[in-house]
Amino acid sequence: MVPDYPLDEALATLRNSGLVLFPTDTLWSIGTDATDPVSVLRLLRLYQSVHSPEPIEILVDDLAMLKHYVPRLHPKLETLLLYHAQPLTIQVEQTRHLPVQLTETPFEVAFRLVRDAYTQQMIQELGKPIASMFATFDGERLPRHFGNINSDVVSAADLVTGLDISSPLPAQPSVMIRLSEDDELVFVRE
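Above: the chain sequence. Below: its structure as tokens.
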């Protein structure tokens, strides 16, 4: 079931280079259209002010979208994405079809196949991935519910959606993995 959040408003905001603050399948995030150079630059400026140790996450709704942006997805990663029980973020070496602000950034960029119905629908109707970061400024307090979010992050958003969510989100960010040079799985964040 898709929560009754203002999807039309979120899509209009994303299509106009805006930043949306929203709950995901892990934590509250602030995100924007990952293919729009102007909005990505806005997100990166916010990210720089946070000094976050976490990567910018590119949220996709399905494997086909992920493969569109990741040219050579290793079969090990693909299998893990399909069958891993928890939300999973992957770090990859090469991407395509993303603005230079994301491909040539000193910040780490990773991809996550989202599982919550609202974020999936937002991505599907936008037709593009969402570049996002955790909605926190201290890098320590996880934004499990709206009350954990710093007011500066809320102020940076052009739209806040999902305020009627009644229970906290999962306590942890997604598991993050990458492949080593010899194609072994490396868990970056468990």
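Residues 7-189 form a domain with the DHBP synthase fold (CATH 3.90.870.10).
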